[in-house]
Specification:
By secondary structure, the protein is mainly alpha-helical. The protein folds into two domains: 49 residues, no CATH class; 40 residues, Ribosomal Protein S14/S29 (30s Ribosomal Protein S14, Chain N, Irregular), CATH 4.10.830.10. The protein is built from three helices and two strands; from the N terminus they run ααββα. Strands 1-2 form a two-stranded antiparallel sheet. A hairpin with a 4-residue loop joins β1 and β2. The longest helix is centred in the N-terminal third of the chain and has 27 residues. The radius of gyration is 18 Å and the shape is elongated. The two termini are 34 Å apart. The model has no long low-confidence stretch (mean pLDDT 94).
């Protein structure tokens, strides 16, 4: 489980990205890079980290399912992810 502060910080970044998305798009189209630099650093979407929706783990994230590899395996073995089953050959 990730620290609560890390998860909260990432959520705050997501809100900041949403808040400035339209303004960033307009500045980029206009080519006004000086004004773009004056926006908050966390307004950039690349600052947001993909995290597991259950544990908050940042590494081993599977974007298609929105969970980490560990939780993905647990959920798949329990049969809670539709269409996923253990391979056997």
């Amino acid at each position: 489980m990730a620290k609560k502060a890390w998860i909260a910080r990432n959520e705050k970044r997501k809100r900041t990205v949403e808040k400035y998305a339209e303004k960033r798009r307009a500045l980029k189209e206009a080519g006004d890079y000086e004004a773009l630099q004056k926006l908050p650093r966390n307004a950039s979407p690349t600052r947001v980290r993909n995290r597991c929706s259950i544990t908050g783990r940042s590494r081993g994230y599977i974007s298609r399912y929105g969970v980490s590899r560990i939780k993905f395996r647990e959920l798949a073995l329990q049969g809670k992810i539709p269409g996923v089953r253990k391979a056997s050959w």
